[in-house]
Design a protein that fits this description.
By secondary structure, the protein is α+β, with helices and mostly antiparallel strands. Helix content is 31%, strand content 31%. It has one domain. It is globular. The relative contact order is 0.24. Keywords: Signal. This is DUF4189 domain-containing protein. It comes from Zemynaea arenosa.
Length: 130
Amino acid sequence: MRFAKPVRVFIGLLAVAAAVAPAYAGQNACLLEGSLKFAGQTIESKDCMQNGGAKPADFLEACNQIAKMGAALGAPPKVTYMDACPAQAQGVCVGVFSRQISAYYYKRDPKDLPDVKSSCELQGGKWKAK
């Protein structure tokens, strides 16, 4: 399903927003999965933030903030902490917000990936298509 550009950009920013901070001691990634309702549309989301050197407490806070944003939209995501983000991402935003954090994207409509890429680059990251 293709969503309007503002919705695609918002969802890209929502996932990337987790990068403003980075996990639990020994946990380097948080996978966020769920369905978001935005502007009358349901959007399946599966994104993962991976810590590349930020403070663990900051990373945990970032993951919690993203979960709270999802809850505010009526659909709290399932959050799973792990050592690394799963393989098979459609794309990765490396160094988002000029920090040592990478955002991995899954379950995106291929037509939406250019907008996710643009959002990544606007936030200081480097996009890597998989």
